[in-house]
Amino acid sequence: TFVVGRERQKVFAHRCVLACRCQAFLGMLSQGPAGSKDSLSSTIPPQDPFILGNVQPEVFLAVIEFLYTNSVTLNSHIALEVLTSSVEYGLQDLCKV
Q1: pLDDT at 90
Q2: Which of 15, 30, 37, 85 is exposed most, by the fewest CB atoms within 10 A?
Q3: 3-class DSSP state for residue 26?
């Protein structure tokens, strides 16, 4: 579970999908609680959300859509923010969309 944006919208996604498709998420999900060095299988319990306050929910949902489907539907008012997020998360293929 992620809590995204100022709106604190909950976004649900499979951690294994995110970790397999994106090195940035693998690193985030592999850190474990309180900076421990646990592996992905024993990291933060599912009830503890990741807080991503600096990204709009619609933008984060577009990134998640891309990670699941390798395609994304964009509109003009979020395209630049999705590009920024794709650079931040190291998603080169999303940068090309």
Answers
A1: 94
A2: 37
A3: helix
pLDDT of residue 48: 78
Record the tokens describing residue 52, joined without a space: 């991503």
Give Cβ neighbours of residue 32 (< 8 Å, ≥ 6 apart): 38, 42, 43, 44
Retrieve residue 23's tokens.
């090195």
Q: Which of 84, 65, 67, 79 is nearest to 25 (CA)?
A: 67
**Verdict on whether the full-model pTM lies above 0.85:** no
The residue ranges of every structural domain in the chain are: 2-95
Q: Which CATH topology does 2-95 take?
A: Potassium Channel Kv1.1; Chain A (3.30.710)
The alpha carbon of 57 is separated from its chain's Cα centroid by a whole number of angstroms, namely 10
Digit-coded pLDDT (tens) for 10-55: 999 998 999 999 999 998 888 754 444 444 545 545 567 888 889 9
Both tokens of residue 69? 């489907």
Q: What is the CA radius of gyration of the chain?
A: 13
pLDDT value at position 84?
Answer: 94
